[in-house]
Known about the structure:
The protein is mainly alpha-helical. It has one domain (2-205). The chain has 10 helices and 2 strands, in the order αααααββααααα. It has helices at residues 2-24, 26-47, 53-57, 59-74, 79-104, 119-139, 145-148, 150-171, 186-190, 193-205; strands at residues 108-110, 114-118. The longest helix has 26 residues, at 79-104.
Amino acid sequence: MNELAVRAASGIVMIIVAVACLWFGGWPFRILVAVAAFLMAGEWLRLTSRAGAGLRWFGLPYLILPVIGLLLLRDSSQGFALTFWTFLIVWGTDIGAYFTGRAIGGPKLAPAISPSKTWSGLIGGMIAAGLIGAFVARHFDLPAPCVWLGAPLAILAQAGDFFESWLKRRAGVKDSGAILPGHGGALDRLDGLVPVASVMGLLLWSGLL
């Protein structure tokens, strides 16, 4: 319970900071994104310190694409709402998967990579993201794809989580860092946002949103 309380408290603080910077936009949001990218880059270098050049250089697109995606989203005509929707999809996936997985349990998704992840957690995360995505999209009158994209993007968010878990297992560490109480490092907290922000930015840039 103490660990959950610390995790919840620090998570609430992070959400407040993120939403405040998102609301103001401009330099506050750019600074937030830059700080997050800087912290993630340092953790990436530590996690891949003994890896080959290919994996280490993969860090460039891994870190740059979500940064570009978030900036494109925030600078769009519905910047606050569209970026807020993107955040909510990732947060909804994490929360839905966490509580559903703990409540139901059941078969593991990929125990060799992440022993705690279950199929029930994935489904719970998809349902949560789907419901939140549809509700927020209709409330803010976002582009039609946002009404149904929540659940598919939840799968992508979980894939990002698995990829980071694989990196940590490969490096022999439990967390990517210790800067966030109850959450570990920046990569631990943002691993799901990386692929979701990248795809959302791509969809916006291609004119599909």
